[in-house]
Amino acid sequence: MRTLEKAEIVGPLGKGYRAGVYALSDGRVVKLFLSRASSLSDATTEFGITRHAWAAGVRTWRVDEIVAYRDRYGIVGERINGVTFETALRTGRIGLARALKELLSLHLQLRRVPSPPPSLMAARSGGRADAALASIAGDPTAFAGEGLCHGDLAPSNIMLDTDGRAVVVDWSAAFVGPTVADVVVANGKWRKALARKRQRLRHRIAAPIVAFAHRVLVARQMGWPPLKISLPLRSLS
Ligand SMILES: Nc1ncnc2c1ncn2[C@@H]1O[C@H](COP(=O)(O)OP(=O)(O)OP(=O)(O)O)[C@@H](O)[C@H]1O
Ligand SMILES: [Mg+2]
């Protein structure tokens, strides 16, 4: 494993709860995990899942290698030139209808991904995934179709690239389960993000409408009955 030199790191691009993403001097990025204890397994698992999704045709970042940096580990890969959907929506760079269309396209891409090998997912434990699964446990028969779930399709984990296309990042909450779980999580996260106080008034008003439109669009595209999927979706949003 290569050791990343400090001089290669140009500057920060984004920060979440467990990691920071930094631009590298060669034009790529590194996602560095914060927690020392689990840093290597976090990096290895996320690297494997991201690569699996990328190879299956999901628009995500291309990951190249795992690196060591001081007492931490990270994933080096392609830099997505663009902003998160969170920023794009807030600044009016993308409209709600267009954003929904891109989200739907991601759901469809994700649904086609075959389940990764169990060894890759072994280090994954529940959390948000459990919440999503618990919420649909009432009627599992309505949601046939297991596969790789991203687990956190929040607007902060989807980027809008310079071609105006959605690219999903951050597979840290991924799991294997009913693919409708991603719809459940996305619906709640988008509604919450749009309804935030600092958002424009029209977004706050639009939040429940967008959530409903998301449900209907998904139901139409994926053949899930809208009434049935509205039950679990409501419980998480
Ligand atoms: N490949 C990339 N190219 C450019 N910017 C990126 C890339 N990946 C992530 N980012 C930026 O960094 C931010 C944080 O990345 P990410 O969501 O992967 O980390 P995180 O939320 O800290 O992850 P975790 O949930 O594991 O704590 C993103 O919201 C985005 O702004
Ligand atoms: Mg994130």
TrEMBL record:
Gene3D superfamilies associated with the record: 3.90.1200.10
Entries under Pfam families matching the protein: APH (PF01636)
Domain Aminoglycoside phosphotransferase: 12-191
Listed name of the protein: Aminoglycoside phosphotransferase domain-containing protein
Species annotation: Methylopila turkensis
